[in-house]
Amino acid sequence: MSGQNWRSLQESLSSVTIFPLFALWMFLVMLITRLLNECYHFPGFVYKNARLSESKKSVEVEVRERVRSKPICSVCHKPGSCYDHLSCRRFEFIPLWGYAVFFLYYMRRVNCPTCGVKVEEVPWGTGKHTLCNAYMLHLAYWARKLSWKETAESFHTSWDKVVQSVQYVVEWGMAHRELGTIRAIGVDEIQYGKGHQYVTLVYQIEAGCIRLLWVGKDRTLESFEKFFTMIGKELSEKIEFVCSDMWKPYLTLIEKHCTNALNILDRFHVVAKLNKALDEVRASEARKLVLDGYEPVLKKSRWCLLKKPGNLTDNQRVKLREVLRYNLKSVRAYLYKEDFQRFWEYDSPVWAGKFLDQWCKDVMRSKIDPLKKFVGTLRNHRELLLNYFRAKKAFSSGVVEGLNNKAKVTMRKAYGYKTYEMLELSLYHVLGKLPEPELSHRFY
Prior knowledge:
Elements: H1 3-39, E1 45-53, E2 58-65, E3 81-96, E4 99-112, E5 116-119, H2 133-143, H3 148-154, H4 159-176, E6 184-193, E7 197-206, E8 209-217, H5 221-237, E9 241-244, H6 248-257, E10 262-265, H7 267-291, H8 302-306, H9 314-323, H10 329-340, H11 349-364, H12 369-380, H13 382-390, H14 398-413, H15 420-431
Parallel strand pairs: 2-4, 6-9, 9-10
Antiparallel strand pairs: 1-2, 3-4, 4-5, 6-7, 7-8
């Protein structure tokens, strides 16, 4: 075969191979721009071209302004004339087929008659963020389900960009949320670090609206006061029910600000205090039996006495039956504890009050000091305990404890937070049910 014929054959084969690949790529480019125009279209802007960068494993989409479209001032949000163009700026979009996607746009400066020369406002980005709004919403959505580190690894991005996305969504939600009329709240605290580091959490616990309203650093009077400052006097006075524990600063501020509310004491903490008193009796008596040389019948009986009878294992039932045969202070304290559970079964606050008074009298005659101390607590908070029945048992701390567990799971999933600011951001993001910016299409 001559050299000329060989060259002509090579050209024909190369055209057969290259043309289909070129046509396929042109089709994908058209498809990308078509999808973006369909799902993420903005008046005044055009997706001009898309190209694949093999070295960076990314797709770059060029964006340009439409002819005769006016830029929008980023300060006063009003249109103005174009002053000049800045250098090309890259906005990161949601990854596509494993490729990072970037918008390339030459930002304009606006000659605003009010604000002077300012950089324009673009609808797909906010401020100096290098991420598109849609991508930040996308990352924030998955950051609510996964840990921030797992989210960053899943989308081949950095942890800082995930935090930036969550911060954008939370700040937007806090600025646009509507508190409305708050009818019932629950307040409690959880530990988030070593050395008695606490956060105070206030939830809205109405039917159909259960969310985190406020996070405060520390468990102090000054910290909780900031919540009432945030919602204002008018909203505070419209609160009808408050669920809290017996901590005095909580009770003081609730009485001061929520003048029309029933303060319902936390049933969980009441039962916890009673169990603590029973455990003190058991531990003290167990030590005394050992010192006096008696058989250690109370050994391994702690959970037999503290757990509900229905939750006992078979071995614990056998052990409890054995312990109840003895005439011990621990046995009498256990019987008082089980008898107190009848208090929560009443419907009328009057009859519940009569039962409570009689139970307290019986315990005071028992000569069991830890239980007598518990009775003093009950008598000091008698009316607050009866508010549970005055509220028709419609509100309790069960919802608050459930939300606290979600908050603890959020902290555990992140293996803790180095700063309080990150903790606050995460709790609002997961539990706050904050509104989010609207998109014409959800990229989930």
